C-alpha cells in the first residue's frame, strides 16, 4: 500500500500518440505522486482516454517516456505493468459470484487459498460489501457492481488504478454517492488513482490535482483551487466554473496590474499568472467569475465600479443569478448569496456593480477552436 505523497507513482515525459495525421495526445508531461487522486478532464475527443490507455499499457506512445514506480515501462504491455484499469462497462464475470470475481486476479497469481480469502474479505470490507460475497453479479445494483469492480482491481495492489469514466452510466444521485465512495476508498486504501472524466464538478469533487486537456495537449495541471483561481488560459477558465469572458483592450500595465478598456470603462485588473506584460493596444480577454462580482451597497468602494441594468434574475435557493446590461454590447452574469426573505433586484433596476483587481484575470487570446472535439 502507498501512504507517502512524496514520491512519484507514475510519470510521463513528452508523450505523443498520433492516429493518422492527427495527434490524439500531444507532448504530455505530467507527474502523479503516490497516493494522489488525479483527474484528466476535458471535452470529448481531447485525448484523455488515449492518455489513460497509454498509462495502462493498452496503447503505446509514438514518442515520449512513461515511468511507473520509477521504472521505464514505455513499450511494456498492460500485463507487464503493475497498474489496473476500470472502464465504464465494468466487465465483471457474470458466471462467478462476488467473491470469485474479486479473487480472480489472486488465483491467476497462484496465491494460497487462505491468503486469497483474507485479501478478498479485506477488499469487501473496504468497499462496504462485507455480506455480499456469495451474491451473483446479476443480483447487484449499479453502485454495488461498481464497488465489486473497484475491489477486484485493488486486490492486486496496483501501483496505480486507472479509471475511465466509470461513473458515467449511473444516475445523478448514485453518481454523487459513488464520487464520495470512490474518494473514501482511495483515502483508506492509500493508492494512486487516475480518473478520466468530462465532468468538471466530478473532477473538482474528487481530485487532489486535475489535468485539463484540449486537442491532445495538457493545458494545465494543478490543484482544483489553482485551476479555478488561476486558469492558464481562456479555455480552462470557461471549462471550470462559471465565468464572464469579456473582450478588452490593454491600455497599459505596471507590475502585476493592468489597465484595460472595456467598452468605454477603464478597469484595473490582474495579469494572468506567469503572463508577460501585454503591450498597449493588445486585444485581450478578461475572466470575471460570476460570484466575484458585488452588487449595490456591497459594490461601494470597489476599485472597479460602474452601473448596469438588471435584465433577468434567476432564483437558485442559496444564491441569485443576475444578468446585467452594462452597455448595449456588454452583458454580464453575477451570482450573489441570498438569504431567505432578503429583497432582491428586479428586471429594470439600475444597480452598482463592483469588483477589485484580484477578482478578475486577464487571459491570453484563445487559440481557434479545434474541430477535433465537441464542447460538453
Ligand atoms: N483507435 C483509434 N483510431 C483512430 N483515432 C482514434 C483512436 N482512438 C482515439 N482516436 C481519436 O483520438 C482523439 C482522442 O480520442 P480519445 O478517446 O482519447 O478522447 P477522449 O477525450 O477520451 O474522448 P471521450 O470523452 O469522447 O472518450 C479523437 O479525435 C479520437 O477520434
Automatic annotation (TrEMBL):
Q: Which UniProt keywords apply?
A: ATP-binding, Cell membrane, Membrane, Nucleotide-binding, Translocase, Transport
* Entry's Gene Ontology cellular component terms: ATP-binding cassette (ABC) transporter complex
Q: What class of enzyme is it?
A: translocase
Q: Which InterPro entries match?
A: AAA+_ATPase, ABC_SmlMolc_Importer, ABC_transporter-like_ATP-bd, ABC_transporter-like_CS, Mo/tungstate-bd_C_term_dom, P-loop_NTPase, PotA-like, Transp-assoc_OB_typ2
User: Keyword Cytoplasm, does the record have it?
Assistant: no
* Residues in ABC transporter domain copies: 10-240
Q: Which SUPFAM superfamilies match?
A: MOP-like (SSF50331), P-loop containing nucleoside triphosphate hydrolases (SSF52540)
Catalytic reaction equation(s): ATP + H2O + polyamine-[polyamine-binding protein]Side 1 = ADP + phosphate + polyamineSide 2 + [polyamine-binding protein]Side 1
Ribonucleoprotein keyword on record: no
Q: What EC number(s) has UniProt assigned to this enzyme?
A: 7.6.2.11
GO MF annotation terms: ABC-type polyamine transporter activity; ATP binding; ATP hydrolysis activity
Q: Which domain of life is it from?
A: Bacteria
Alphabetized SMART domains for the sequence = AAA
| Subunit organization | The complex is composed of two ATP-binding proteins (PotA), two transmembrane proteins (PotB and PotC) and a solute-binding protein (PotD).
- What exactly does this protein do? Part of the ABC transporter complex PotABCD involved in spermidine/putrescine import. Responsible for energy coupling to the transport system.
Q: Which family does it belong to?
A: Belongs to the ABC transporter superfamily. Spermidine/putrescine importer (TC 3.A.1.11.1) family.
Name the UniProt record assigns to this protein: Spermidine/putrescine import ATP-binding protein PotA
Amino acid at each position: 500500500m502507498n501512504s507517502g505523497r512524496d514520491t512519484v507513482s507514475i510519470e510521463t515525459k513528452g508523450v505523443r500518440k498520433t492516429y493518422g495525421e492527427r495527434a490524439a495526445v500531444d507532448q504530455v508531461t505530467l507527474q502523479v505522486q503516490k497516493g494522489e487522486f488525479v483527474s484528466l478532464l476535458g471535452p470529448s475527443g481531447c485525448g484523455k482516454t488515449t492518455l489513460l490507455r497509454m498509462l495502462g499499457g493498452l496503447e503505446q506512445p509514438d514518442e515520449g517516456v512513461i515511468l511507473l514506480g520509477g521504472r521505464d515501462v514505455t513499450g511494456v504491455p498492460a500485463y507487464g505493468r503493475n497498474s489496473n484499469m476500470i472502464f465504464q462497462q465494468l466487465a465483471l464475470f457474470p458466471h462467478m459470484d462476488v467473491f470469485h470475481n474479486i479473487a480472480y486476479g489472486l488465483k491467476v497469481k497462484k496465491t494460497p487459498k487462505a491468503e486469497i480469502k483474507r485479501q478478498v474479505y479485506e477488499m469487501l470490507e473496504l468497499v462496504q460489501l462485507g455480506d455480499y460475497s456469495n451474491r451473483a453479479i446479476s443480483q447487484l445494483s449499479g453502485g454495488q457492481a461498481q464497488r465489486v469492480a473497484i475491489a477486484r482491481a485493488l486486490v492486486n495492489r496496483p501501483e496505480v488504478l486507472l479509471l475511465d469514466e466509470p461513473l458515467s452510466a449511473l444516475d445523478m444521485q448514485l453518481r454523487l454517492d459513488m464520487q464520495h465512495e470512490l474518494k473514501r476508498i482511495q483515502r483508506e486504501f492509500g493508492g494512486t488513482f487516475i480518473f478520466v472524466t468530462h465532468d468538471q464538478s466530478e473532477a473538482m469533487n474528487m481530485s487532489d490535482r486535475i489535468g485539463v486537456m484540449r486537442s491532445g495537449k495538457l493545458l494545465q495541471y494543478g490543484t482544483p483551487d489553482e485551476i479555478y483561481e488561476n486558469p492558464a488560459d481562456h479555455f480552462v477558465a470557461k471549462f471550470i466554473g462559471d465565468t464572464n469572458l469579456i473582450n478588452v483592450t490593454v491600455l497599459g500595465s505596471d507590475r502585476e496590474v493592468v489597465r484595460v478598456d472595456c467598452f468605454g470603462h477603464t478597469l484595473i485588473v490582474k495579469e494572468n499568472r506567469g503572463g508577460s506584460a501585454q503591450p498597449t493596444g493588445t486585444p485581450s480577454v478578461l475572466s470575471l467569475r460570476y460570484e466575484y462580482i458585488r452588487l449595490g451597497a456591497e459594490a461601494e468602494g470597489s476599485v472597479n465600479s460602474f452601473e448596469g441594468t438588471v435584465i433577468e434574475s434567476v432564483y437558485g435557493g442559496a444564491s441569485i443569478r443576475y444578468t446585467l446590461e452594462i452597455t448595449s454590447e456588454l452583458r454580464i452574469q453575477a451570482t450573489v448569496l441570498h438569504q431567505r426573505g432578503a429583497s432582491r433586484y428586479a428586471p429594470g433596476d439600475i444597480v452598482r456593480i463592483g469588483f477589485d483587481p484580484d477578482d478578475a484575470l486577464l487571459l491570453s487570446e484563445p487559440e481557434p477552436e479545434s474541430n477535433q472535439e465537441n464542447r460538453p
